[in-house]
Specification:
Elements: H1 2-13, H2 23-30, H3 36-71
Keywords: Membrane, Signal, Transmembrane, Transmembrane helix
């Protein structure tokens, strides 16, 4: 159990930063100076992508805990 927690913490703190945009967003944002809006759009995309995984992971964790307590 200790190794699982350490692995989870490792995944949370060490992540790869990626830049992803749709074609239209990229065309509009590349023409802007300062690139502050582009960084905001990238952060928004990452947040929108991460939330479903966090929710499904949380639901899976609670199902696992419930299943584990029922077996005892």
């Amino acid at each position: 159990m200790k190794t699982k927690i350490i692995f989870l913490l490792f995944l949370l703190f060490f992540y790869l930063e990626s830049n992803a945009q749709c074609a239209m967003c990229r065309a509009v944002l590349e023409s802007e100076e300062g690139q502050t809006a582009a960084k905001g759009i990238n952060d928004g995309i990452v947040y929108l992508m991460a939330i479903p995984y966090i929710l499904i992971g949380g639901i899976g964790f609670f199902i696992y805990k419930k299943y584990k307590t029922l077996k005892k």
